[in-house]
Amino acid sequence: AGMPIATQAKSTLPSPSQEPSDSQIGHTPVQENMSKQQLRQAAKQEKYSISHLNTLDNSELVELLKEISWTQIPELFTYNDDTQEFYEDRERVQAIIDALQESGKNFTKDDELGIHTYVEVLRSGYYLGYYNDELKYLMEPKYKQNIIPALQSITSNPNFSLGTKTQNEIISSTGKLISNTTVDSETIGLLSKVMEDFNDNRDKWSDDREASEAFYSVLQGVGYVLIWGVNDSERDELKGSIDAFLDPIFDMAENGDTSADHVWLTNNALYYTGKLGSYYSDPDKANDILTKAMKTYKKWSEPYFTAAQQIEETYGEDANGNKIDLEEMKKEGKKHYLPQQFTFDGGAVVFKTGDKLTEEQVERLYWASKEVKAQFHRVIGNDKELESGNPDDVLTIVIYNTPDEYKMNRFLYGYDTDNGGIYIEGTGTFFTYDRTKEQSIYSLEELFRHEFVHYLQGRYEVPGMWGRGEIYENSRLPWYEEGGAEFFAGATRTEGIKPRQSVVGNIRNASSYLDYTAADMMRAKYGTLAFYDYSFALQYHMFKNDFARLDKINDTIRSNDVSAYDDLIEDFSRDRALERGYQETLEELIDQYEELDVPLVSDDYLQKVDVTSKEEVYRQIAEVASLTDVKTDEKDSEEFRSFTLRGVYTGGASQGEYQDWQEMNRLTDGFLKELSDLSWNGYDTVTSYFTNYRTTKDGRFAYDVVFHGKLAQEDGSETEQPNPNPDPEESSISLGKPITGIIHPQKPSQEFRLAVKSAQQLQVEMETKQGDGVAWLVFHESDRENYISYPTKREGNKLIGSFDAKPGTYYVTAYTYRTGQEDQPFTLLVTGEDSPQEQLYQESESNDSTEQANGPLPIGTTVSGDMKGNDWQDIFAFQVDKPEEIRISLNPQQGQGVTWMLFHEGNQDQPVAYPQEIEGNLQSAHYQVMPGRYYLYVYKYQNEDVMYTVETKQR
Question: Which residues are catalytic?
Answer without folding.
Answer: 451
